[in-house]
Design a protein that fits this description.
3 helices, mainly alpha, elongated
Length: about 100
Amino acid sequence: MVLLTLLQIIDLLVSVIVFLVIVQFVMSLLIAFNVVNTSNQFVRAIYTAVSALLDPILSPIRRIMPNTGSIDFSPLVLILGLNILQIVLRNLVVAGY
């Protein structure tokens, strides 16, 4: 029962991280195409907060990955890694019962 609870907590945390990655991606596109402006304090505050939350997780991935130019694949690697972690943990919990 405890393992199932821990799995649900991890699933929730993974969902929040994936949501933040998607928010950061969409905001960076909107900023790059000049749809929203970073001189707007609200936009800058949200983007800074999301980046501050994700940078400690994405920085180690960026150091390991090869340089691909202007395309950053670290968010994709993070999402894939988190989904693999969820699958492994879910199978461990199912095998434990």
